Amino acid sequence: MPTYGAALEALADPTRRAVFERVAERPRPVGELAAGMPVSRPAVSQHLRALKDAGLVRDRAVGTRRIYEVDPDGIAAVRAYLDRFWTDTLQSFAAAAEADQEERP
How many domains does the chain have? Predict the structure, then answer.
């Protein structure tokens, strides 16, 4: 199973991130995703493969085409990773506020 680390690495590439953002707008075939991109259709396919390997997108067959869409499980892994920082930060803030209250007369 892909990890949040693989997902973050995949999104580090600006072109791959742009492809992912287009997939996130709505499910699309590779031809639609490649339209208007500054890279070739085969390059978009390679980026989609990397995103799929990282668990961020999945594909399904519709006739002779493959439709790419966001994989909610991959996004959930990234979100859980980032939420952990938010939770830790809030807990640290609460502890600091309580300590400050205890120090006051």
Answer: 1
Q: What does the DSSP 8-state code read for residue 35? A: T
**Three-state secondary structure call for residue 29:** strand
Could you please report the per-residue DSSP string of 47-102?
Answer: HHHHHHHTTSEEEEEETTEEEEEE-HHHHHHHHHHHHHHHHHHHHHHHHHHHHHHH
Q: Which domain holds residue 32?
A: 4-103
Q: For the packed helices 4-11 and 41-53, what is the interaxial angle rounded to 10 degrees?
A: 160
Q: How confident is the model at residue 1 (pLDDT cuts 50, 70, 90)?
A: low
Task: Give the model confidence (pLDDT) of 4-36 as tens digits.
Answer: 899 999 999 999 999 999 999 999 999 999 998
Distance CA 24, CA 70 (A): 6
